[in-house]
Amino acid sequence: MRVELNGVPTDVDTETVAGLVGGLTSAERGVAVAVNGEVVPRSQWHRALCTGDRVEVLTASQGG
Amino acid sequence: MALPPLVEPATELTVDEVRRYSRHLIIPDVAMDGQKRLKNARVLCVGAGGLGSPALMYLAAAGVGTLGIIDFDVVDESNLQRQIIHGQSDIGRPKAESAAASVREINPLVEVVIHNEVLTNDNVMDVFSGYDLIIDGTDNFATRYMVNDAAVLLGKPYVWGSIYRFDGQASVFWAEQGPCYRCLYPEPPPPGMVPSCAEGGVLGVLCASIGSIQVTEAIKLLTGTGEPLVGRLMVYDALEMSYRTVKVKKDPDCALCGENPTVTGLIDYDDFCGAVSEEASAAVQGSTITASELKEWLDAGKDIDLIDVREPAEYEIVRIPGSRLLPKGDIVSGAALSELPTDRQAVFYCKAGVRSAEALAAAKAAGLSNAVHVQGGVLAWINQVDPSLPTY
Ligand SMILES: [Zn+2]
């Protein structure tokens, strides 16, 4: 399925937010994912993605 | 969703205050009422560093009546590239005191409260309880989660911001009105995964981009003006020059502010954020040398392979003589395992000893049983062996 991942059209072979994150990074910790402009809480990561979804993967940073 | 003002207005403004704040007073949405609320407001800035600098300076100029500053650190030369509340003559001075002096110079009408101490589980509830709103300008995950949890437990809003290289994020976390930090990021990244500003760098002016958003949101909350950044995350990309917001909802499963919380008081934040991973803390047992010991080894001509596991830019700034570069990421990922020595003893070092511990764990797992790492990294080398080298 093709989604827009951080602004870039990308083919992903997963159905869920969790699967997409798992394919990007070995660590789920410290990562937030927004789908179509809204952050999906960690407890909802089993949620299905749809073709054309705008997905943004955000990383926590500690600097201040 | 507009929110009511956080603070009641002061009874009046003096003639001096009317003159000073006239450009606020003639904005209909601030006006006399809003400025009186600012005068009555008590705001605490956690950290007088990169974000704390612009935050404190603009809050002072804006006429926030009481400004608390908590920081235990002293001003270092490497802070001055971005921490503009401090100056050359402040090097070596406690940051809280230096920042307080700048605030008084900007606006003598502000009452400054100096907390020249480390924020810990023992004092955080007490310190926070004296303020209407908290601004988070800290530089590590452990303190960030502590600030969040204390603010949620006390029912206080806090304006959060974080920065790294060219990227910044900001939001207002207020569990009574929306999500908290844990709703967005339930846990910190694994230790060593996300570098700090000291390890990865930060564009100095990024502090102003994010700090100014924090001040704007603080003023809006205190005066009840506009749409607060509650339930939204601001994401700033300086390279693209884009600001955009994404919505953040309360997570019903949030460990702290969710429906069935498992965190009901302060926790051990160092443990939660894991200063080093379990593998690394196990690996360093009996396999750690001091910088002075390394010097003795080198002077004695011991046949070792001294490996710097930092990033190339750091290696260019300062290094231990005789070392070669092999970044930690490549060792841990396995990409550089073939470049590890098979015939000589490996000695790893980084800036302060965390990354080298991770590299050591990976090297030992790959069979380098006699490998060691240098406690305190290149900073300890400079401190104990060669103070003429630059620190960063
Ligand atoms: Zn929460």
UniProtKB/TrEMBL annotation, chain A:
InterPro entries in the cross-refs: Beta-grasp_dom_sf, Mopterin_synth/thiamin_S_b, Thi_S, ThiS/MoaD-like
Pfam families in alphabetical order: ThiS
CDD domains with a match to the protein in the record: Ubl_ThiS (cd00565)
Gene3D superfamilies cross-referenced by the UniProt entry: 3.10.20.30
Official protein name in the record: Sulfur carrier protein ThiS
The species this protein was found in: Stackebrandtia albiflava
UniProtKB/TrEMBL annotation, chain B:
SUPFAM superfamilies (alphabetical): Activating enzymes of the ubiquitin-like proteins
GO CC annotation: cytosol; membrane
Topology relative to the membrane: Single-pass membrane protein
Domain of life: Bacteria
Keyword DNA repair: no
Keywords: ATP-binding, Membrane, Multifunctional enzyme, Nucleotide-binding, Nucleotidyltransferase, Transferase, Transmembrane, Transmembrane helix
Residues making up the signal peptide according to the UniProt record: none
Pfam families tied to this protein: Rhodanese, ThiF
Annotated ranges, domain Rhodanese: 300-390
InterPro entries: Rhodanese-like_dom, Rhodanese-like_dom_sf, ThiF/MoeB/HesA, ThiF_NAD_FAD-bd, Ubiquitin-activating_enz
Family: In the N-terminal section; belongs to the HesA/MoeB/ThiF family.
Protein name (Swiss-Prot/TrEMBL): Probable adenylyltransferase/sulfurtransferase MoeZ
Classification of source organism: Bacteria, Bacillati, Actinomycetota, Actinomycetes, Glycomycetales
